[in-house]
Amino acid sequence: MAGGIEVKTPEQVRVMRRAGLVVGRTLAALRDAATAGVTTAELDALARDELARAGATSSFLNYGGGWGIPPFPAVTCISVNDEIVHGIPGSRVLAEGDLVSVDFGAIVDGWHGDSAISFSIGRARPDDQRLSDVTRESMWRGIAAARIGGRVGDISAAVEGYVRSRRPERYGIIREFTGHGIGSQMHQAPDVPNHGRRGRGPLLTEGICLAVEPMLTLGGEGTATLDDGWTVVSRDGSRACHWEHTMTVTKHGLWVLTAEDGGEAELAALGAKFGPLAD
């Protein structure tokens, strides 16, 4: 531990990479399976099958609870349209034009991977596609801003800076929910806000692992939680989007543990150094 932040050994990071690949491949399978007429519960069942096939367990199932709120009952969070995050899979039938965000986590040998993607069912509305593209790109800008000796605020400022640069379009940056440290627990220090100033926040060191996860809306930043105690929606009813990757900082560069290629292509496009650990 360094300043209360769990720093991983190379061996531990390699196990997190295994968990990350389970997450990334499962999300790809869920995106392919998500068509009009499919229920969110059916997608969750597919994710459970993928976990079993990989010999992994769920980061999400039975997470949390207390204060009258039951533990989370599924292995995926599936949020649709104005739902921002933590949507509970169930009988909802996906329809043409829905904007869907799927968040998924897996545990391999005690170490976590966590990632989220967004996509439309069938033909995307143009504003939904732009929202997803901006959210995804802001995530990559945040990841690419990380480096040993930098600060968490460098990531936050890069996310916010990219979103704010998209004028005349304007997007609501959700401030109430943040990225986070990840490792032997799914959520741990430090928080990784999606807004902030460069040079602020905890120091980035070799072996730190973070989940970078911007959430944007087509409207305001206000949120509300539904009666199920979990599902977070935009207060103004605007559509929302969520992208997330788990990444680490190595002495060789950046490694995105939940991306199939480790993030090499996206990082190269942004001029950032790709640096996986040697096998």
Compact overview of the structure:
Helix content is 28%, strand content 24%. It has 279 residues and is α+β, with helices and mostly antiparallel strands.
Order of strands, main sheet, comes to 8-7-9-14-15
Rg of Cα set:
17 Å
| CATH arch. level architecture | Alpha-Beta Complex
Q: What profile does the largest beta sheet have?
A: 5 strands, antiparallel
If you average the pLDDT, what whole number results?
97
What would you call the structural class? alpha+beta
Shape: globular
Please provide the count of β strands. Answer: 15
Supply the number of helical segments.
5
Q: Strand fraction band?
A: 15-25%
What report would you give on this structure?
The protein has 279 residues and is of the alpha+beta class. The chain has a single domain (10-269), classed as Creatine Amidinohydrolase (Alpha-Beta Complex). It is 28% helix and 24% strand. The protein contains five helices and 15 strands. The protein has helices spanning 10-33, 40-54, 126-144, 152-164, 264-269; strands spanning 57-58, 76-80, 83-85, 99-108, 111-120, 172-173, 179-181, 188-192, 209-212, 215-217, 223-225, 232-234, 240-242, 245-250, 253-256. The chain has a five-stranded antiparallel sheet. A hairpin with a 6-residue loop joins β11 (223-225) and β12 (232-234). α3 (126-144) packs antiparallel against α4 (152-164). The longest helix has 24 residues, at 10-33. The two termini are 24 Å apart. The mean pLDDT is 97.
